[in-house]
TrEMBL record:
SUPFAM superfamilies: RNI-like. Residues 296-369 form the FBD domain. PANTHER family: F-BOX/RNI SUPERFAMILY PROTEIN-RELATED (PTHR31900), PROTEIN WITH RNI-LIKE_FBD-LIKE DOMAIN (PTHR31900:SF33). This is FBD domain-containing protein.
Amino acid sequence: MQTFKFQNEKCNDDRLEEWIETAVARGVQHLSVQIEEIEDIEEVDPPYVTQEIYRSNTLVSLYLIGVGIETPDCVVSLPRFKAMHIEDVQHDDDPLIVENIISGCPVLEVLAIIRTTESESLSAVKSLRVRSQTLRSFKILFENWFGGMHYAVEIDAPSLEYMSFRDDNSGVIVVKNLTSLYAIHIDTEFNLGFANYDGNPLGPKDSSKIKTIHDFLEGISGVRHMFISPSTIEILSQYSEFGSIPKFANLYRLNAEFSSSTIQLLPIFLESCPNLKELLLDYGGSKPIELSYVHRCLISTLEFVYINQHFPMDKTGIKLVNYFLENSAVLKELKLNFCGRTFTNKEQEICKNLLTPTKLSRRCQVSIKEPVIIQEHCRALKY
């Protein structure tokens, strides 16, 4: 059997477990079970995947939503298993369950672990360890329902190339041996979201949290393409007052969204990116800003700047654009977009005339274009 796929909004039918067991017994290669909603989830157990799945010689991919998995009662052996997606899956309170499964997958390449439900029964495992020599693509999405310092994530994957890290749940985050990392999408508040909403931003007394953020940045510092969400930028802006941004020596493309309250982080961050070539900047702010420091990448490497401006062109927007035009020695192209409106040719010329006449790079082309897609996902995030 090549493929078994079951998808339904609700299922409390015991026969599903039998169907899964039969599919595994018949040598299924691709197994997909998606249950979007289970009635009375706190009182009714979802259908569970059979233990036989841990000893399959044929299984290549597993896609599970809203079902249960048991702690393996045997040594996991999945010699052909390459891809796994588990979402809102119920399991025993065993901190090693995911690690044990991964350890038996010698050719695993793609892994996605997602937890979006607020049911405590689906959030039992408080420690996630992802250790794999072959993993190339990893997506984690944990929404913050019950987070805290007692939730931890550890990622040790020397072959990992693409990672989407969206974890608002874990207070302890460890990443190491990410020597092959090519692209990363970061959308995390490092479990500081609730504190910030209550008006208590990161402070000097938060030494353990400051170290966690620093070690995370250090662990991904070899990446080449990075997307950073606005919420993460906010946390990093606070962090920069107490901790340093490590060097991202290999980073050539940065996608980030700033506001007038976080724009001061931009020069600090760019200073840590000496070889940056492309900057995609989403900016939403109208308060006065001061950008005076000229960092190394502007002088020697930055070639393309794309700016999405969320407000009409004003002094703030002009200052931001001119900062790059006046200080980027090898800039080839600067694209500017005002989100939410289209300019006539005459209006485009008026805007261009407001910009500095003293471009440092004479070959730089300035254009006002359609919206630049800032939040494009890395290739790894499309699985």
